[in-house]
Specification:
By secondary structure, the protein is α+β, with helices and mostly antiparallel strands. Helix content is 42%, strand content 19%. Strand 9 (221-225) and strand 10 (228-232) form a beta hairpin.
Length: 269
């Protein structure tokens, strides 16, 4: 057993505790959204778990929800003043060592380490719920969307990745900076010239180029997740097929991975 397998074996008994803490965080988010009329819906593996399992995918250890980009910015402003003690709204503004444009609501009394986490840069690493920003996409061929979104995502990610001063870092800055400017300019032009009935993660977070017809998402429906009802896309079946294809097929055991490397659900009592 290698060290990663040992770490996973250490965290496995904490998986259900982690899931229940994430569910508590989701209910806090739901309460704030209901109070202020902010729309959101279950996304990704969380929606898949709700439809296929009635709750968490048994080996999943995160919760994903989505909001319109403008709603997410309003939620972030409101939530900073309304989250209860022990929860932290993590964005590049509230936690400068974080570069991702999504919002995370983190539990401050836990430790959740993923493969890509850095111990060089200090940022909050507690159990969390992800909030992904959605916006309209232009009605262009899927291959165009995938190529442009992948180019924007990759270039943006490399530019925001930690660098050491070197000739390679300088070359990457100019090469990928130029690519990002070109891809974004093309995307903006297409957005202005074309109808926009597609809906998806903002381009810097949509490396797979997955989009949904807006009618697949809105108006929202509801779905049961664990012990409560939560907002869901209007057509969960089509939404999940867009992402996963045959989503009802259970993956083989060797592909049932969870995201974390280490989970410590409670640091102090």
């Amino acid at each position: 057993m290698d060290y990663q397998e040992q770490l996973r074996a250490f965290s496995q008994p904490n998986l259900r505790v982690c899931q229940l803490r994430q569910l508590e965080i989701l209910k806090v988010i739901d309460g704030i959204c209901r109070k202020h009329g902010i729309s959101y819906w279950l996304d990704g593996g969380t929606l898949l778990g709700a439809v296929r399992h009635g709750g968490f995918i048994p080996w999943d250890d995160d919760i994903d929800i989505a909001m319109d980009y403008q709603d997410m910015k309003r939620f972030a402003r409101i939530a900073q003043g309304e989250l209860p003690d022990g929860l932290f709204l993590q964005t590049p503004t509230t936690d400068p060592n974080v570069k991702e444009q999504m919002v995370k609501i983190r539990d401050l009394n836990s430790l959740y380490i993923e493969k890509g986490d850095s111990f060089v840069n200090e940022y909050v690493k507690g159990i969390y719920v992800d909030i992904f920003p959605f916006e309209r996409h232009p009605d262009i061929p899927k291959s165009w969307t995938k190529r442009l979104a992948k180019g924007i995502t990759k270039s943006n990610s490399i530019l925001h990745h930690p660098h050491t001063y070197s000739l390679r870092a300088v070359a990457e800055f100019f090469w990928f900076g130029g690519q990002l400017l070109v891809y974004q300019a093309i995307w903006k032009m297409l957005s202005l010239c074309c109808r926009s009935t597609r809906y998806a993660n903002i381009p810097t977070m949509n490396g797979y180029g997955i989009t949904h017809d807006k009618a697949t998402v809105l108006p929202l429906s509801t779905v049961r997740f664990e012990d409560a009802e939560f907002p869901a896309p209007h057509d969960p079946d089509q939404y999940l097929r867009n992402i996963y294809g045959n989503y009802m097929e259970i993956p083989p055991v060797e592909k049932r991975h969870f995201h974390s490397v280490v989970i410590i659900p409670e640091l102090t009592k």
